[in-house]
Amino acid sequence: MSARRPASPRRVPILGAAAVGVAAIAFSVVAPPTPRLIWNASASAPVGLYRLFPDAPLAVGARVAYRPTPDQARLFAHRRYLPDGLPLLKPVAAVAPSVVCRKGETLTIDDRIVAQARRTDRAGRPLPVWSGCRTLSADQLLLLAPDNPDSLDGRYFGPVSRTRTLGPVTPLWLRGSGR
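RE: above sequence
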């Protein structure tokens, strides 16, 4: 019988690096990474490259990356508003405990008129409608681009879950800005 030889000093770093590599691959399969850069090509925010801050707090006025629900994603893809799997970039208009209401085409936040909804999109197709008033809970936001009357946002889908947001974004480069 031969005695076992100890691992050579060269093998230990190689085995350690291999173990770290296997663990990293396994982790990426179990927990897909959040993208850190997002290209926005939709008209709802300036076209360009944005940096994502996934751990930053969400506050009124911040522009966030939002993952549409499966139903929203299907509608967006079917109508060619947004390719499936891409996030929307939208400003946060309200957080808890704000009261958001849609009555007819009028959207209010805490009794202030903030936007008007359209009945149809540019192609004449009916847009989603929600109605009534909702007091936002700690896990809800209202996303709204009030300066863009064509924006597909809280006018049509109401409050959304914070868990569907990837985090705030800031522009790195915007088309036509020269930066």
